[in-house]
Amino acid sequence: MNRPNLLWKNEESHHPTRVQQAFNIALVSAFMLGVLLWAFYSLDYTLRLDTVYLYRTKFIDGFLMTIIIAFFSLILSLIIGSFLAFAGKSRFLPLHYFSKAYVEIIRGTPLLVQIYVFFYIIATAMHLSNRYVLGVIILSVFSGAYICEIIRAGIESIEASQIETARSLGFTSYQRYRYIIIPQVFKRILPPLAGQLVSLIKDSSLLSVIAVSELTKNVQEVDSFTFATFENYIVLALLYMILTVPISYASKVLERKFNYEA
C-alpha cells in the first residue's frame, strides 16, 4: 500500500492535504521551539514563568484592552477610509486633493511620529486628554489611509465595460455604485481588509508611548517589576499571535473563497 508523502505536495494538487498541513506545521513548530530551547540552554538561563502567572491579571487586562482598541479603530478607520476613497473620486477638486494629500502624508510618515504630533500638538490644542479615545482616533487616522487605498483599488478593479453598460442603461451615478460597484468591491476587498486588521492590532503596541494601557504597555510595566524580560516578551508575542493568526487564516480563506488575486 502506498503511503502518502507527508513532505511533498502532490504534483496534481496545488494545495497540501490536511494531514500534510498538520504534520508540517507540527514539524516546523517543533523545530522553532527546539531552537529557542537550545538557545536558552546555551545561555544557561532558567525561565521564570511563575512571574508571568503572578502578574497574569495585567496580561489579561492588556489583552482585552488591545482587542477593544483594535475593534473601535477598525470601525472608525473603515468610515475614514471609505470617505477618503470616494473623496478621491470626487469632481470637487479641493476634496479630491485633500484625499490625495492625506494618504500621501499618512503613508509617508512613521506611525510613531504621527502619535507624537497628534497627541502632543493637535490633541493638546483641542483640549483632548482621554488617552484611550485619542489612541483609537490616532490608529484610525493612520489605518484609514491604507483602507482608502484598498477601497480605491477595489473600485478601479471593476471592469470599465460594466460601467459603460450601466451608463447606457441609464443608471445614475448613485445606482452604479449601489447596484454594480459596491457589491463587487465588498467581496474583493475583504481579504486585504483582514490583513489590515492584523497590522492594526500590531500597530496598537505603539500606543504604549502615550501611556495607553494596552498589551505592550502592561507587559512593560510587569517587566519593570520582575526583570523577567525574556519570559514577558515571549508571552507578549504569543498573545499577539493568538489575535493575529486566526485573522490571517480567515484572510486566506476569504481569498480562496472570492478567488482574490493580489
Automatic annotation (TrEMBL):
Keyword Transferase: no
Membrane topology listed for this record: Multi-pass membrane protein
Family note: Belongs to the binding-protein-dependent transport system permease family. HisMQ subfamily.
The entry's keywords: Amino-acid transport, Cell membrane, Membrane, Transmembrane, Transmembrane helix, Transport
Gene Ontology process terms (BP): amino acid transport
Residue spans crossing the bilayer: 21-43, 63-87, 108-126, 132-151, 233-250
Highest taxon, organism lineage: Bacteria
GO cellular component term of the entry, any: ATP-binding cassette (ABC) transporter complex
Provenance organism: Desulfitobacterium hafniense (strain DSM 10664 / DCB-2)
Domain ABC transmembrane type-1, residue spans: 63-251
GO molecular function, one term: transmembrane transporter activity
Subcellular location field: Cell membrane
Name of the protein: Polar amino acid ABC transporter, inner membrane subunit
SUPFAM superfamilies in the cross-refs: MetI-like
NCBIfam families attached to this UniProt entry: HEQRo_perm_3TM
CDD domains: TM_PBP2
Keyword Aminoacyl-tRNA synthetase part of the UniProt annotation: no
